[in-house]
Amino acid sequence: MRAQDETAIVACIPSLRRYARGLLSDAALADDLVQDTLERAWSRFSLWQRRGEIRAWMFGIMHNHFVDGARARRSRPEDSAGDALPEVPQRATHTDRLELEDLDRALQRLPREQREVLLLVAVEGLSYQEAAAIAGVPVGTLMSRLARGRDRLRQDLQGRAPAAATPIHRVK
Questions:
Q1: Which residue in 24, 31, 77, 79 has the most C-beta neighbors within 10 A?
Q2: Which residues are CB-contacts of 157 (< 8 A; sequence separation ≥ 6)?
Q3: CA distance linking residue 132 with residue 136, whole number of Å
Q4: Cβ(37)–Cβ(16) below 8 Å
Q5: Which among 27, 35, 52, 38 is positioned nearest to 1, based on CA atoms?
Q6: Distance in angstroms (rounded) separating the CA atoms of residues 98 and 160
Q7: Tens digit of each residue's pLDDT (9 = 90 or more) over 51-81
Q8: Whole-structure pTM over 0.85, yes or no?
Q9: Cα–Cα distances in Å, from 172 out to 165, 166, 167?
Q10: For residue 98, what is the DSSP state?
């Protein structure tokens, strides 16, 4: 591995930490996810085919590892992520901190698929194509999840219950 490749991987750590904390809302679990992602990236670096950005490749590794962990946790119902909030840096006012906590709670209430794409696109600034590749879905599916996630988040933060999906009835 070349020095510039190592530098590129290390440069991804802040973004990986931010994404992991958004996914898990638990600082210790998020740090474990980042550590596992870095270990996998180092050990599988020869598999990276230098197509696209290394950052997107690393997010893909993290996403896949997170999904695998979520499936494993689902099979063990006694384990849960809990309602713990990630560590939030001290803000200028108490109101700012409360707003951040409300946002984090609202994000955690979103379905996993919607939360993932919101974090990848809105927080990490990945393109729709990159985020779709990481999530393993077509771009149209990603855009649909993103729109539904944004709408639910907006409604939740405004204190309205998200609208339930209404069935479509065909006229005969």
A1: 24
A2: 102, 103, 106
A3: 6
A4: yes
A5: 38
A6: 18
A7: 678 888 888 889 888 888 777 777 665 544 4
A8: no
A9: 22, 18, 15
A10: H
